[in-house]
Design a protein that fits this description.
By secondary structure, the chain is mostly beta strands. The protein has one helix and 16 strands.
Length: 213
């Protein structure tokens, strides 16, 4: 059985953890299936959609997906995550992302409804580097974690309603064109599930992908 779990914590720099929530994620989207399909079937093209809504057609010879060595970005500036001949991807373009939109998912969802941008201005969060843990085998369970820590240095509280995992895709094997692709989006429409990050607090978002045999 394949599982995806989401845990969200707010952390005060002096008081420690101020809130902690966890859910079972049910929100893989079509891009995820396309990525899996293309890595299992050869000689077939598959169209995916990047986070800008642009159709990308990749053959098996040109695909290269990976989740993120997202560069550390505390301090408010944006840092390049990848350099490419025709495109540039910033560290906050890939990895775990958060937003404050509440539009429902569809199978064709390709981006967050209202992404919270990286920065220190009102309504912004600083996206730190992403972390992908090693695979852990524990009895019948095998899993690895994807994590990111964000900091609220905006001067006001920010409410989080949606979460995503975005991977980077190299259109050519040399990495000539790289585009971010959303593969998971969890959205919460009930206020009881919303997470408020107070100014100066940190937000830790963790996804755990696990398999039980």
């Amino acid at each position: 059985m394949f599982h995806l779990q989401l845990q969200v914590q707010t952390i005060h720099p002096k008081k420690g953890i101020t809130s902690s929530r966890a859910w079972v994620s049910k929100s893989f989207v079509k891009n995820f299936l396309g990525i899996l399909y293309r890595n299992m079937i050869s000689e077939t093209d598959w169209t995916t959609f990047d986070t800008g809504g642009n159709a990308r057609d990749y053959s098996n010879y040109h695909e290269q997906y990976n989740i993120i060595p997202c560069i550390q970005q505390f301090g408010g500036s944006r840092v390049f995550g990848y350099y490419a001949v025709t495109t540039t991807v910033f560290g906050d373009d890939v990895g775990i992302q958060v937003g404050d939109g509440s539009a429902a998912n569809t199978a064709l969802t390709y981006t967050l409804h209202q992404i919270i941008p990286h920065g220190v201005a009102s309504g912004e969060l600083e996206y730190s580097g992403g972390f992908v843990g090693e695979v852990v085998v524990n009895g019948a369970d095998s899993y690895f974690d994807i994590e990111r820590i964000l900091r609220n240095n905006s001067g006001g509280s920010i409410v989080i309603k949606e979460y995503a995992i975005v991977v980077a895709n190299a259109e050519h094997w040399q990495g000539a064109a790289i585009y971010p692709h959303l593969i998971v989006r969890d959205v919460f429409t009930e206020e009881v599930d919303w997470v408020t990050v107070a100014t100066t607090e940190y937000l830790k978002v963790s996804y755990r992908l696990s398999v039980t045999v």
